[in-house]
Amino acid sequence: MSLDLGFWTLQALNALQLSMLLFLLSIGLTVIFGLMHFVNLAHGALYALGAYFAASAAAVGGYWAGFFLAPVAVAGVGVLLYSGLIQRMRKSGPMAQVLVTFGLIFALLDITRIVWGDLALGLEVPDLLAGRVALLGVEYPAYRLFIIALGLAIFGALAFVLSRTQIGAMIRAGVDNDAMAACLGINVERLFFIVFCVGCALAGLAGAVAAPLLSVTPDMGLQILIPTLIVIVIGGLGSLKGAIAGSLIFGFVQTFGAVLAPQLASVLIYALLAAVLVIRPVGLFPAKG
Amino acid sequence: MFRHTPLRYGALVLLASAALFQAFTAEYFGLEILTEIVILAMLVIALDMVAGFGGMVSLCHGALLGVGAYGYAILSTKLGLTPVVAMAGAVAITGAVAWVIGAICARSHGIYFIMATLAFGQMGYSYVFEAPLFGGDDGLGGIARLDLSLIGLDLNDGRSFALFSLGVLAAIYGVAVLILRSGLGRSLSGVMHNEQRMRALGLTVWRVKADVFGLSGLISGLAGVMAAQHVMFVSPGLLSWTVSGEALVVVILGGLGTLVGPLLGAAVFVLLKHEVGALTSYWHLVVGILLIAVVMSRANGIFGWIEARFGARIERRAADAVRDIDPREVKTDA
After folding, report:
1. At what angle do helices A188-210 and A166-176 cross, to 10 degrees?
2. Domain housing A207
3. B118, A229: Cβ pair inside 8 Å?
4. How many domains does chain A have?
5. Which residues contact B322 (CB under 8 A, 6 or more apart)?
6. Going from the N-terminus, what domains does chain B have, and what CATH number goes with each?
7. Are residues A277 and B122, on separate chains, in Cβ contact within 8 Å?
8. Which residues of A200-232 are buried (b: 16+ CB within 10 A; e: fewer)?
9. Average pLDDT score over residue span A152-169
10. Chain B residue at shortest CA distance from A229
């Protein structure tokens, strides 16, 4: 094993890139849960849909068409899901919600297979980001740096919206105590709808940016679901801080675990999750104290 | 607490006679499907015990099944133990693993419990997937079935194995009913309905949960051993969380907390899988839509719906007949 600085920089960048991808997925899921206690297991399926939309649009109009279209299209699917199913499931217990969204995973998985077929689709990295960039003494693919930058930009934007704007204050109030927020004249239901759509759009965006790195297959949603759930449970449900902390913990444990202890790498993250659940059953930074 | 209503007895008799009829008349393919149903039924009984009577919705029962299957495979092929000893060992290991998981997760509720059990299940899955001892992605083959030639049964014959599995399932059902009727089972129902009150009554809540989870693990382990003997091969796919998810789907389709319903659900699920699977490769779509429809209809699965529709009438008629003789059952507000 090489122990020079460049090697570790490279691993740290890899970890950061994985973290940012997970952050894009988990932030939508965690705020949806925090605001409305709704468990959307189908979030991973929306990510897969985003990747497929991006691949289809890219085949026609190039990478950037897919990049901008996928979030919009997935948000559209989110609107359909919301009005068809989720609105009616709001008052049910977590068990019924888990099951309905589990059924949705099955259904969406086969729908993607029917529409796009079983074969993996590929997506080219755009010319603008195709090269490598010298950074801190290592050569790193520009596209992966773009993902890191995008994740940080979205984190910054969300942090600004949540802490400095009126709608952010309303969302925080809703997460903290939805009944009281409703009494103060906030339309919590409409707020939830907006957050749900933004969450879906971010899932679609994550799918679009992940598509050139991984091949686009029907089960990519299932593969990303478990890491996303681990992130939000470690981080604590409902908070931006929890989502970013959970993503970073997951990314770094996964990447450095694979380097330092390859036999234990896959078990390590689950052991960490179990430890967090035992010591702090509500996660590290829950939205509610 | 679990109670046999006349409707439940009727359903059991119907299911048992259908299974026996199938076991004696079916050809090779029919017997394979029957055995698949029976093994899935064992797993869903274990899951219904914890989810339907203890409110512990577990997403690690697939992994527990895998622990039983791999335990049997390792003990019998690598360590060369006789099948009976390997079976007992594998079941005991699974029970112990389940007890530990139950004890650790006992403090979590709702979605956190689901996530915690999912984490443990995935932990087992990734460990088995990576460890060279377990054959990794390739799985392990060459697993022997139990040798029952002493009593004149050759389990390598499909019909004998199907009948043997049915016998095991019947025993498991009986044990599950006994557990749920025992003091432990009653405490568990109490914990599900009002944990605070049970704690105030002096019950060690986590012990009750862990004990029932461990017992449920024993049953899952036995289901895993039977699955390993059935296909004579184990692969990491057995531990995957989708197996646990499917088991949960079966419990919900059949009727949570009815114990008879999940048996019906297992039969419906496997038959549906093969019938729809023969027509189209998109059978997940059908199952997904069916699952959404069942949950949205707010009925407690197929059997729950039947009970709500006809159960009360049959029960009233039966109660009229025995009221003077047997006033044993006392209804409480719990």
Report:
1. 100
2. 5-279
3. yes
4. 1
5. none
6. 6-322 (1.10.3470)
7. no
8. bbbbbbbbbbbbbebebbbebbbebbbbbbbbb
9. 90
10. B115
